[in-house]
Specification:
This is Beta-lactamase. With 353 residues, the protein is an alpha+beta fold. It is 33% helix and 20% strand. It has one domain: DD-peptidase/beta-lactamase superfamily (Beta-lactamase, 3-Layer(aba) Sandwich). A hairpin with a 2-residue loop joins strand 7 and strand 8.
Length: 353
């Protein structure tokens, strides 16, 4: 019996030692980019089987008030919003309100080439629609309150870059159109649809449709880095990125999202798994994008990845389905990118566990 307890004690000790070494390695990876304690920083989380293995914050969440970053801070997640938009479309498809193979002319009758462009094309960035972020006059509307219809009208008459399904080209306009279609088919606003069908359902209580006006507890403030130092982020009206990049969240809320997807709390696996399948072009060529996620690999092991970038913020998450490993990183300065760091952490975690 004495030997049994000694063995248990030694196992516990070495596991603890191993966990400490793992955390030190993760710290060293992050500190390559987030080493300055008096600059804007970031926050990172690693989970295995839905449970947190590592969670840590770096730098400042507010420079003016000299407030340290915490793991509870709320960040703008940028294009990671596209996951929520894509899943919302699949929810509506399950409800029978649309089909992903429907032409967009069914919802926006006057859209040019609308009979040729499908919801699937929008989801997979294969529509050929002009990305509104590349239109020269974008600065004219960046700070205006825009309705979804006004946003669609802003880019709809631009010439298409290519024929629908001909190639993959990352496209924010397609996801704005998807948000418009969500509103038209659900009879509610995009913000309310996400709130009711996702945030409230899985208790993402610290996630929001972004606002610079609302009082948001634990908000991390966004910054740019200039020659003379840091400045507050450029103001953009969130009705412009809309359903392509206007959500805010925390590390732990995003883990709730990932766990809810795994446990089919939002959609059954038959419908949800459509989002995780690689898409194909007209010529049969496979592309590494599903609906709202890049479908990639680390050392030959399948991953689902997506990042985000919006004025003052950057984000990145990697999920490894076969090992149920989730890694996510946020930054509150667009001068610091968590993208490669998050991928490196995912690789190390995969090798270590």
């Amino acid at each position: 019996m004495k030997n049994f307890f000694l063995s248990l004690l030694l196992t516990s000790f070495f596991c603890s030692l191993s966990a400490q070494e793992f955390k030190k390695k993760i710290d060293s990876i992050i500190q390559k980019e987030f080493s300055e304690i008096n600059e804007p920083g970031g926050a990172f989380l690693i989970a295995k089987n839905g449970r947190i293995l590592y969670e840590k914050a770096f730098g400042k969440s507010n420079l003016e008030l000299n407030v340290n970053m915490t793991t509870e801070n709320v960040f703008q997640i940028g294009s990671m919003t596209k996951q929520f938009t894509a899943v919302s479309i699949l929810i509506l498809e399950k409800q029978g309100k649309l089909n992903i193979n429907d032409p967009i002319s069914k919802f926006v009758p006057d859209y040019p080439s609308g009979n040729e462009i499908t919801i699937r094309h929008l989801l997979t960035h294969t529509s050929g629609i002009k990305d509104f972020t590349k239109i020269k006059t974008i600065s004219d509307i960046a700070q205006k309150e825009m309705t979804p219809k006004m946003m669609v009208n802003f880019f709809k008459d631009e010439p298409n870059d290519f024929k629908p399904g001909e190639k993959f080209e990352y496209n924010n306009s397609g996801y704005v159109l998807l948000g418009h279609i969500i509103e038209l088919t659900s009879g509610t606003t995009y913000e309310d649809f996400i709130q009711k069908n996702i945030f409230e359902k899985i208790k993402m209580n610290n996630s929001y449709y972004a606002s610079d006006r609302k009082i948001i507890k634990n908000r991390a403030y966004g910054y740019h880095k200039k020659k003379d130092g840091f400045v507050n982020k450029t103001i953009i009206n969130f009705s412009v990125p809309f359903s392509s990049g206007s959500l805010m969240s925390t590390l732990e809320d995003m883990l709730k999202w990932q766990n809810a997807l795994n446990q089919n709390q939002i959609l059954d696996s038959v419908n949800l798994n459509k989002a995780f399948e690689k898409s194909k072009l007209n010529n049969g060529e496979e592309i590494t994008y599903g609906f709202g996620w890049h479908i990639k690999e680390i050392n030959g092991i399948l991953t689902r990845e997506h990042g985000g970038s919006v004025f003052g913020f950057k984000s990145m998450a990697v999920y490894i389905p076969s090992k149920d490993i989730y890694v996510i990183g946020f930054s509150n300065c667009d001068c610091h990118s968590p993208t490669e760091i998050t991928k490196e952490i995912a690789k190390l975690t995969l090798q270590s566990l």
